Amino acid sequence: MCLDSCRKSIRAIELRVKFYYMVKQRNPKDTYASSTRIVMPNDTNTLGNLMGGNLLNWMDITAAISAHRCSRRICVTAAVNNVSFKKPIKLGDIVTIHAEVTRTFNSSMEVFMRVHVENHISGEQQLCNEAMYTFVAVDQLGAPIAVPDVLPESDEECERFDGALRRRQLRLVLAKKMKPSEATELKALFD
Ligand SMILES: CC(C)(COP(=O)(O)OP(=O)(O)OC[C@H]1O[C@@H](n2cnc3c(N)ncnc32)[C@H](O)[C@@H]1OP(=O)(O)O)[C@@H](O)C(=O)NCCC(=O)NCCS
Questions:
Q1: 96/36 Cα distance (integer angstroms)
Q2: Ligand 1: which residues within 6 Å by Cβ?
Q3: Torsion sign across C-alpha atoms 19, 9, 137, 76
Q4: Which domains does the chain have, with CATH numbers?
């Protein structure tokens, strides 16, 4: 009896997983991930400001979860781009990272992130950083594997979706994986 109900539960889970893989499209919202941290003494430099590398690490983890929610595969960081550190983040501040996939290509996904910082005394919230990371979904042997499409809905999502192609071309040209002559969308910006 108990074995039977276990089998049924396993079958139900298998069907759900199968259905998930059959879904070929996602919405950026399906890929949303966030994380919140408080800046501790170990995270700071001698001025009491958060070290940039720590923030990059927290962003990497949040973006990896977003890429994972998009692909349901193992995801590796291929590139870190467009990171800007606009304001120092202080000891005790509360940092929240919001991430979502803007666009997917074959195996790669561009993840957009916003970092909000909450002053631990005043409670004032500020947008401190924005960044784009690129993740690639891989199989158990580390070989790139296809990911579902992401279809934007809101104006902001559509704008990021359109820009993602140019940003991809720029990344691949800089990584010497694409000839500048092939980066047609990027070139069109200057024509
Ligand atoms: C990322 C990685 C899987 C790409 O593998 P690869 O053999 O170079 O594969 P390809 O050239 O066929 O590229 C596969 C995808 O990666 C993308 N890619 C590769 N290098 C890239 C770069 N520098 N920037 C952005 N995207 C890149 C390609 O555009 C391609 O995307 P697509 O399938 O959507 O078209 C591989 O380089 C890797 O495993 N790197 C290490 C990842 C890692 O360990 N990260 C943590 C660093 S500590």
A1: 4
A2: 76-79, 105-108, 134, 136, 138, 142, 144, 171-172, 175, 177
A3: positive
A4: 20-153 (3.10.129.10)
Q: Which of 81, 136, 145 maximizes ligand 1 atoms within 8 Å of its Cβ, making it the mutation to test the pocket?
A: 136
Alpha-helical regions (H) of the chain: 2-22, 52-71, 155-174, 184-188
pTM: 0.88
Q: Which residues of the chain have pLDDT under 50?
A: none
Q: State residue 186's pLDDT score.
A: 84
pLDDT in tens, 98-110: 999 999 999 999 9
Residue 85, pLDDT score: 83
Sign of the four-CA dihedral 24, 31, 62, 17: negative
